[in-house]
Specification:
The chain is α/β, with parallel strands linked by helices and 149 residues long. It is elongated and about 55 Å long.
């Protein structure tokens, strides 16, 4: 049987600020992110298997990505915890806001690397993460490919 790529798309709303940046993105702002997750594998060839003919059930892929990414990042504000933004983060948390402190500058590039690591840990052994595309705006996105890493 041939190797097939399966893609599932997700969307979520996230705020962030880029500490030390020399443009508008130094200010707290948000995006309507679109995340495309592509996995690669061979369809299950066992006619008695409940998932016969599937590389992975789209629902199973959805559970992984929702639990590891969407449910965590949706309607959260993300800051690099190694910057003075931790003071702002504490103030927002004290007021009941959902704040994520990460070990990196929360750019699309760094977020997509983080997402790849999180998703890969939860995929079945016979399936590999092929690529991620994180779209920040209608015309701007970052991509991660396993073949590059």
């Amino acid at each position: 049987m041939g190797t097939i790529r399966i893609t599932k798309q997700f969307s979520f709303e996230t705020g962030h600020a880029l500490y030390g940046y020399d443009g508008k993105c130094k200010n707290v702002h948000g995006h309507s992110y679109k995340l495309s997750v592509t996995v690669i594998g061979k369809p299950i060839d066992d006619a008695s298997h409940v998932k016969h003919g599937m590389v992975i059930d789209f629902g199973d892929l959805k559970k992984i990505v929702k639990a590891e990414i969407v449910d965590i990042f949706d309607h959260a504000t993300v800051f690099n915890k190694n910057t003075p933004h931790v003071e702002l983060a504490k103030e927002l948390e004290d007021r009941g806001h959902n704040v994520l402190l990460v070990n990196y500058q929360p750019t699309s590039e760094m977020m997509v690397i983080d997402f790849a690591q999180k998703i890969k840990q939860h995929l079945p052994n016979h399936i590999n993460l092929h690529s991620l595309k994180l779209q920040e705006t209608e015309t701007s996105f970052a991509e991660w490919y396993a073949s590059d890493n």
